[in-house]
Amino acid sequence: MTETKIMYDSDEAAQRVTLSGWISRDGIFWPDKTDPKFAEHHARWGGCTHLICECGNEHRKNYTICDSCRAKKDDERYQAMPFKEWEGEPLCLYRDDTYFFSEDALQDWAEEHDIEDLSTIQLVICEPQHAWEIEGDDHYADILPEDTELSDVAPLLAAALEDVNEVIREHKEILCWMPGKFRTTIKAGE
Ligand SMILES: [Zn+2]
Q1: What's the predicted TM-score (pTM) here?
Q2: Where are the alpha helices (DSSP H) in the chain?
Q3: Are 149 and 141 in contact (CB under 8 A)?
Q4: DSSP-based three-state secondary structure for 22
Q5: What separation in Å is there between the alpha carbon of 114 and the centre of ligand 1?
Q6: Which terminus of the chain has a smaller tally of CB atoms within 10 A, N or C?
Q7: CA 87 to centroid of ligand 1, rounded, Å
Q8: Collapsed DSSP state (helix, strand, coil) of residue 30
Q9: How many C-alpha atoms does 131 have within 13 Å on its Cβ side?
Q10: How far is the centre of ligand 1, averaged over its atoms, from the C-alpha of 76 (Å)?
Q11: Rounded to the nearest whole angstrom, what is the distance from the C-alpha of residue 73 to the centroid of ligand 1?
Q12: 38 alpha carbon – ligand 1 mean position (Å)
């Protein structure tokens, strides 16, 4: 079988073409070849920093909506949470891990942030988090022989864990507080 011979100078070796397409600000070329709209979109997306929000405001392209729309959506989500009167539980800011363990702490924070009316702060009532019980059979499942319970092979340990679980059940000590499902408001001097 003879190999095809193509000379350097021949038209077969190469042809001059003019390519059309889109080039983004960062120098990436998107040829029209497949779909000009696709090429334009990708080039513009690659080269831009901002987009226009549904509301008409500009926003950075790494967000899907502008700051004010996002604030509005956050606000709607907060208002959609069920309301409960505050009864002195720890509080936290909505979608923020700033916690307040007393009204004084909230008052100080409000002053620092030039907020005069405490009732305008989006607060969430926190819920206590307790230790969960330790199920020895699950905890040691990986090293327990098949069809064997912890009490079969380690009765002392199983009994000790039962004592631990009793402390957990009876005393319900609080390990920490986490945001719960209720929103609330408090007024100054309440
Ligand atoms: Zn917007």
Answers
A1: 0.67
A2: 36-47, 67-79, 103-112, 136-139, 150-153, 155-171
A3: no
A4: strand
A5: 26
A6: N
A7: 37
A8: strand
A9: 13
A10: 14
A11: 10
A12: 25
Q: Pick from 9, 180, 4, 177: which is nearest to 99 by CA?
A: 177
- The 8-class DSSP code of residue 144 comes to S
Residue by residue, pLDDT tens for the chain (190 residues) are: 678 999 999 999 999 988 899 999 999 999 998 788 899 999 999 999 999 999 999 999 999 999 999 999 999 999 999 999 999 999 999 989 899 999 999 999 999 999 999 999 999 999 999 999 999 999 999 999 999 999 999 999 999 999 999 999 999 999 999 999 999 998 765 4
**Residue ranges near ligand 1 (ion) with Cβ within 5 Å:** 53, 55, 57, 66, 69
CA of 177 from ligand 1 middle (Å) equals 34
Question: Pick from 18, 22, 26: which is nearest to 42 by CA?
Answer: 22
